[in-house]
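Please decode residue identities from the backbone states below.
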């Protein structure tokens, strides 16, 4: 399967659903392998432990959601239950299994700041059980027969999340610490091979480390976070009743992530919704407190839906408004057969509220105001650029920017008033490419409008297929990878 087909598959499901499918496949394989003796645990024990974890997590999550009056997210409970299934020894004491499930869900609602998770739920749960009843995780997923599937599935997850930087930084630092801790005369390569093949290291890196709600908001901080967790995980130490373990390393790393990330979730009250282009709507929300964000960043939005479809009740949307405005705007395209999430969103009335959090994103303006920029937007991919140009207008900050805005028909142009204002007040060059009139935006058109482009940085935002196509086009024109920034947020659909 080629990369385009892989991306096409991944873009059809949210990151949460992709993770859940991956974990369920691992559990199913473990059950099958145990039948043949390839996994050293009883088949019925694996099934029983997993069923208990799923049931208790689901019920506990529902109870806490009612107590704290927040939307139920069964998908999150399923994922946590699946993670715990693969690290808690099959057939473990019933009290241990039940407590781990309860603690994992309690952590989401109780150990948080303004609704934001502080710790990875599964990791803090097994630490809590160790403190309370002196029973901890065995990480039995570290099985040689499961490793190939962990690698393949983990690579797909990392691609979906675009978190290869996080995984790689963790592995590099962790393995370096491992090598330096070996006794004299030990074979370093054998130790590395054994660690990667016969342990749960890769499962930890791909599944638990990349958990979005406890991951820092941008690339530099993610790399630092991975390195911190890798260093701690590779160090032997004891803190009171706790000893060095993957879950303790992750929880300690979570503290760093929390300190450098946006704090908490926001209650958004819908003020107005209106059609800004055919099948494209603008939603204006009033947040319950000020959000300090950079133009081009995104938030994760959670809705209370009557019945979730395969894509769940959470979505990531780029903020279309500027930090200089006192409201938060979204621009959303509605296609045929919209998801349950979008159906619920469009049915909202003024005064109703939704939750948003997980502010993140690297698709932001460079600090160097002298850098020459090219913005390429396709369809609703104009939203981050609307945020940027509105910010520049309000700050009266002139930059050398050329913006290409590609739409199928002229009626699909959104935010034309703001773009015209940016052109008039800041001298930003706006080029509309209407495909049913002008044809596709291609190399010939780019070079005609930009005779000199080698000194520019290109920003590309739009449907994933369009973004990938332009990345390839720009590279074929000789634009270096470091001069191409692509808009990305987890869970594209």
């Amino acid at each position: 399967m080629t990369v385009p087909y892989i991306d096409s598959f991944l873009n059809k499901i949210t990151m949460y659903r992709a993770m859940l499918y991956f974990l369920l496949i691992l559990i199913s394989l473990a059950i099958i392998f145990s039948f043949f003796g390839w996994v050293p645990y009883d088949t019925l024990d694996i099934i029983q432990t997993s069923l208990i974890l799923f049931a208790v997590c689901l019920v506990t999550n529902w109870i806490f959601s009612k107590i704290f009056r927040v939307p139920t997210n069964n998908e999150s409970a399923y994922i946590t239950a699946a993670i715990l299934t693969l690290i808690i020894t099959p057939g473990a004491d019933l009290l241990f299994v039940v407590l781990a499930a309860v603690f994992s869900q309690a952590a989401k609602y109780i150990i948080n700041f303004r609704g934001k998770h502080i710790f990875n739920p599964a990791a803090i749960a097994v630490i809590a059980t160790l403190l309370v009843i002196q029973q901890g995780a065995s990480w039995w997923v570290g099985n040689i027969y499961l490793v190939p599937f962990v690698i393949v599935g983990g690579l797909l997850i990392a691609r979906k999340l675009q978190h290869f930087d996080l995984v790689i930084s963790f592995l590099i630092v962790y393995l370096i610490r491992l090598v330096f801790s070996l006794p004299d005369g030990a074979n370093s390569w054998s130790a590395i091979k054994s660690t990667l093949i016969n342990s749960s290291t890769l499962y930890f890196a791909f599944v638990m480390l990349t958990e979005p709600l406890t991951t820092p908001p941008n690339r530099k901080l993610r790399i630092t976070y991975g390195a911190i967790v890798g260093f701690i995980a590779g160090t032997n130490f004891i803190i009171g009743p706790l000893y060095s373990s993957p879950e303790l390393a992750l929880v300690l790393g979570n503290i760093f992530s929390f300190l450098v990330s946006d704090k908490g979730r926001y209650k958004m009250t819908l003020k107005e919704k209106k059609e800004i282009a055919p099948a494209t709507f603008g939603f204006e929300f009033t947040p319950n407190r000020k959000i300090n964000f950079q133009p081009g960043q995104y938030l994760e939005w959670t809705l209370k839906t009557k019945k979730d479809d395969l894509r769940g009740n959470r979505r990531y949307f780029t903020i279309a408004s500027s930090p200089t405005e006192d409201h938060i705007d979204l621009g959303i395209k509605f296609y045929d057969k919209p998801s349950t999430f979008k159906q619920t969103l469009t049915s909202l009335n003024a005064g109703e509220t939704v939750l948003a959090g997980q502010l993140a994103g690297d698709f932001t303006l460079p600090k160097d105001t002298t850098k020459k920029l090219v913005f390429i937007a396709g369809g609703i991919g104009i939203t981050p650029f609307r945020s940027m140009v509105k910010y520049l207008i309000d700050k009266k900050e002139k930059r050398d920017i050329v913006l290409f805005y590609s739409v199928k028909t002229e009626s699909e142009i959104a935010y034309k008033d703001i773009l015209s204002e940016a052109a008039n007040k800041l001298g930003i060059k706006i080029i509309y490419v209407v495909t049913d009139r002008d044809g596709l935006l291609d190399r010939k058109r780019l070079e005609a409008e930009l005779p000199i482009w080698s000194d520019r940085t290109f920003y590309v935002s739009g449907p994933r297929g369009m973004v990938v196509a332009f990345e390839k086009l720009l590279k074929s024109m000789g634009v270096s990878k470091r001069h191409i920034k692509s808009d990305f947020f987890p869970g594209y659909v």
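Observation: The two ends are 21 Å apart (CA to CA).
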